[in-house]
Amino acid sequence: MDYQWYPGHMAKAKRQMQEDLKVIDCVIEILDARIPLSSKNPDIDRMAEKKARVLILNKADLADDKRTAEMKRMYEEKGFFVNAVNSRNAEGIKGTVDVIRSACSEKIERDLRKGIKNRPIRAMIAGVPNSGKSTFINALSGRNCVKTGNKPGVTKGRQWVRLSKDVEFLDTPGILWPKFEDQTVGLKNALIGSINDEILFPEELAYELIKIIRVRYPSVLEARYEIEGLEAIDDINEIVAKIAIKRGCIKKRAGADNEKASKLIINEFREGRLGKLTLD
Hints:
A hairpin with a 4-residue loop joins strand 5 (159-162) and strand 6 (167-171). This protein has eleven helices and eight strands. The longest helix has 15 residues, at 202-216. By secondary structure, the protein is of the alpha/beta class. The two termini are 19 Å apart.
């Protein structure tokens, strides 16, 4: 399958972001900690090249802790300021403002030399769809100031949010980039819900997810679905069929409903029910 999704509103949002960057001090890119490489948008790197950069490894509660720590170090070595958070329960959120101030230290010093005091840092919140940008803003602000949802496209337009007298955010719609050179990147973005599910085939997605899990976390499926010998089966279709029967995904007079079971597997991955997994 060709994993591509770049509707017109994303192209429009990208153009608006380029215009807004003229008044922005810092770009905060929200990454999904489960795919910390694949959720990084190269278009944002190009647009924000001359701005202070902060990376938020969001949904860290759903990701492999060891891998998240490795990715945090890697990005810091590349010059980014990084924080790992769980926006749903605000874990790690408190340290974010300090990270933003560190990223903008040169800007703050320039303002002081010019006699400018109390000018807030203007930070743009950017990232792929469904990476949790709005949940992150709400957690950091301590109030529900922007709309959230568990599917792409909830944030329709730009919105300024005053965090404090020191920082204000510009929330932007989630955007992908026009073409995934590596279709594995597209696949992983589809698995976390960054691509509209309505244009995808759940069985193919689930089969590919199982292939990744069997390599990186070989005992997870057998433990989750309590099916002995599951890891010894080579045929992915057979694996999904066994999970379907175990979970009651049955078609009338037709046996296992692999499509229904595939949707179940994808949802359980997205909700963290398969464990703390990192696909990159």
